[in-house]
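Supplementary notes for students who missed Thursday's class. We covered one full example, reproduced here. Read the sequence, then the structure, then the short commentary at the end.
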Amino acid sequence: MKNSRSISIKEKILIVCQVIAGEKIQRVARRHRVSRPSIYIWTQKALDTLEEALKPEKRGPKFKKGKVDAKDKLIEEQKEKMAESGDIISEKEKQIENLRGKINLQKNSLPRPSKCPHCGFEKIYKNGTYKIKPERFFEQLQKDKEIEITVQQFICPYCRSSVYTSKKKRKIILS
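Structure (token representation):
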């Protein structure tokens, strides 16, 4: 077995620098008592590392101030549009809740008759609506400025008679 000695990093750097400076590898190998293949390997690794470290694309992107300002303006415009659309969405949600309240008013104001008042048959079906102009305006109608009330009609399939709700308990459908 050959005697192998450990070579420090500083000494390897010195050897690689001498080879890169132009000295012949054989003379450098004799002077430092190292094998020529080792010097070739160290030199190649050093050159590869230097090349990788000095690549221009590794330094990161270079931004121009004009482009950055334009992007910032665009981002601000988009944020403003998002805020405006958020306001519109909240307004539309309020309108939807208002309409749901009106629908619930329609459904809950008067239930469908449970049986025909003429013959007593238990199945009653819807049979269209009719509109009336009330003599007095209800509070809700005054707010919405409605001038007509839509009233639901029912029909009995057994005796074929129309069933209306009483005048005091008319179902109000706001249109």
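Commentary. The longest strand covers residues 125-132. Helices lie at 9-21, 25-32, 36-53, 65-109, 139-144. If anything here is unclear, bring it to office hours.
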